[in-house]
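User: Could you check the structure of this?
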Amino acid sequence: MARSDAVVHGFPHLETVRAAITALYRRLSPEGVRAYAPSVLPSDVSFGAEDDLHLGAQRVARALVHHLRLPDARMIVGFREMEHAATVELTAGPEYFIELNDRFRRHRRDIGAALAHEITHVLLHRLDLHFPGTRDNEILTDTATTYLGAGWLLLDAFREDRVSSQKLGYLTPEEFGYVLAKRALAFDEDPSPWFTSPQGYTAYTKGRAQALRDARQPPLTTAGWAARHRYAKERRQAYGSGTPASAGAGQGRTAGPGPLERHSAEPGHRFESGRNGPAVSFPCPTCHQRVRLPVQGRVRARCGLCRTIIECDT
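Assistant: Sure, the predicted structure tokens are below.
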């Protein structure tokens, strides 16, 4: 895990983050992802000043192992001087050795955040789920930690003022907030009471705004008037007068994208030509797997990956 003193803001890794969410649903299945509800609670990972350093770290590690559904994994936690915030030795188990930076001896409130990331490395190792390259693999780990209910600790470890800053992990604070909000929307969960860091909560609200924009893109019926207007204009440009009239509500289907006809200026959707006539593909607002539907007006579809019911006006 990386520790950063120069905090980058915004959403520079959003494409990889979305791919990581898709990968989680593909590897775990919708039922497997939902098995990680609810999130780990603050009371389970709190670290008081009176707690013994090593016993407290072991207790928090056990709680995170239990939450991440690794009952056979025993974590042995140590502390030493190092460049990074933490490391984990990935072996076949059943014991895993985690080393935390010596600074956590003084900053005990953030031990849970560091352990959450490292223990998720163990989970992904056992699942044989990884991305190529260190950077993308660490983004996958941060995303999985957060989407599976332990990553709010990482965002709560973010603190920034005029003279100093601290951030754990590879995602920006806003990207952590985005993934946390995507989880909150999917699991009907409100993580806002758990934040002790005002900067972490602010980053969550910014990430949530981006997550809500995902759920308001055409052809979703929740899209705003301006977005719907642009979508209709692009549809006319793609198909001209050949666009079918509204066919009423019906059961849609999902599939991989067909031959590309026109890229949309609105992020996400694109118009295609298929064997059965005009179609539009767009990312599922929950898992970002692409959904492909006929251009025929109002359609209700079920995402083939996460099984989210999607109301569309294609």
